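Please check this record.
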Amino acid sequence: MSDATLFILVFSGLVVLRVVLATVFFALILPRGDRCPNCDGTTLRLGSFIFDRCLPWFRRSWCLTCGWRGVLRRGAPSEQPAPLEATARR
């Protein structure tokens, strides 16, 4: 095998490995659940037939509070906070 072929194979392998590792890393740092990463508000799931079929372990979400749109990992739904009660009555 020539030196040029070996050089191309090694560096092509390193590029592919870097892309795979970056993809896995960024997939793992996505938050799990249904809370907004910006404001910790409740998010709504945005359904997409193609997205749900191709990437079933992710979910597209939209935050009701701050308007954030993005991708979260699927997880158990979080408990809704109890509604605030009036503490002082006049």
Summary: The CA atoms of residues 84 and 90 lie 17 Å apart. The mean pLDDT is 82. The longest helix spans residues 3-28. The chain has two helices and three strands.
